[in-house]
Write a structure and sequence with these properties.
Length: 321
């Protein structure tokens, strides 16, 4: 890899990832780890050939149009790419690449942790003990909803969804899913396909949202779809916050129509609907689906493999535009 390629590294990625950047490219780093957006992002991109960034850096059509002509490639440290206007990037002739695959297990672990925490009231129970409100064991204290024999509905049966399914099987759950198309038998492994997402809602004792965020899926889980869920449903979202209509979910959590929810992602994060924080039956995490040392390193190395391939004149396997 010629060291003279100029790479703008917008975030403080893990140390081993930054070391590889430094070894192989002429880098500009962001030691303060501030989230550059808009004019600042455009200005910082001057005199660089490529940008290595994360989902906080928004590459809207306007930003892409204003990027310096020297920029040829954008490599995101994420599988999600809703922060990049791919149409604008394609029109501009930019190579855009992401990091699918390497975060499937870690994200499925967090989805399952949320399914368990929500159904067994972990957040509420933890608060009770810490607040000194626990007066001792009782036969009916903190009763939750069991998983064994229940239906786990997976919205989006890509790599992460399939890992969630694997964990669900180990917990004795029946797996149902919706995808654009049914999986081949060796990937479905007995999971029951629902052609319509609404039909999937009707069997969702436990719902795990694992689909990409697209404009059509904005506020997918709204009042009407919540009304389709079985009583006492558990809802978990480790995909993107915009997939849920927060007002509708909060109303259902308050009324008891939905037993509990576990959320790792929020519309407009790091801001979230303030009423979530007042509810006992919701577990809230700060977008940590892929947050293990191993996974964040693998994401960084994948993003750099993508750039290396591009600058070696090859077509990167994770090309998305
Ligand atoms: C992803 O890879 O999309 C994660 O959500 C981190 O942004």
């Amino acid at each position: 890899m010629p060291k003279n390629i100029r790479l703008l590294v917008t975030r403080q990625f893990p140390a081993d990832v930054l070391a590889r950047c430094e070894r192989d490219y002429t880098c500009t780093f962001n030691p303060e780890d501030t989230n550059w957006i808009g004019d600042e992002l455009i200005g910082r991109a001057a005199d660089h050939d490529a940008i290595f960034f994360s989902s906080g850096n928004k590459f809207t059509a306007d930003v892409i149009a204003a990027l310096p002509k020297s920029i040829k490639a954008l490599s995101t440290f994420s599988v999600g790419h809703e922060h990049i206007d791919l149409t604008a990037a394609t029109e501009r002739g930019l190579m855009v690449m992401n990091t699918p695959g390497v975060l499937n297990e870690a994200t499925a672990d967090i989805a399952f942790m949320l399914l368990l925490s929500a159904s067994r009231r972990a957040s509420e129970a933890n608060r009770m003990v810490r607040n000194g409100d626990w007066v001792g064991w009782t036969p009916t204290q903190m009763l939750g909803v069991g998983m064994q024999g229940k239906r786990l509905a997976i919205l989006g049966m890509g790599g992460i969804g399939r890992e969630v399914a694997k964990r669900g099987r180990a917990f004795g759950m029946t797996i149902h899913y919706h995808n654009r198309s049914a999986l081949p038998d060796n990937d479905a492994k007995g999971a029951i396909y629902h052609k319509s997402a609404d039909e999937l809602m009707k069997v969702a004792d436990f719902l795990s949202i694992n689909c990409p965020m697209t404009p059509e899926m904005m506020k997918f889980l709204n009042e009407d779809r919540i009304a389709l869920l079985p009583p006492n449903a558990i809802i978990v979202n480790t995909a993107r916050g915009g997939l849920i209509d927060d007002e509708a979910l909060i109303a259902a959590l308050k009324s008891g129509r939905v037993f509990a929810a576990g959320l790792d992602v929020f519309d407009g994060e790091p801001n979230l609907h303030p009423e979530y924080c007042d509810l006992n039956n919701v577990v809230l995490l700060p977008h940590v689906g892929s947050a293990t040392v191993e996974t964040r390193n693998a994401m960084g190395f994948t993003a750099l493999d993508n750039l290396d391939a591009f600058f070696d004149g090859k077509i990167p396997i994770n090309r998305i535009s």
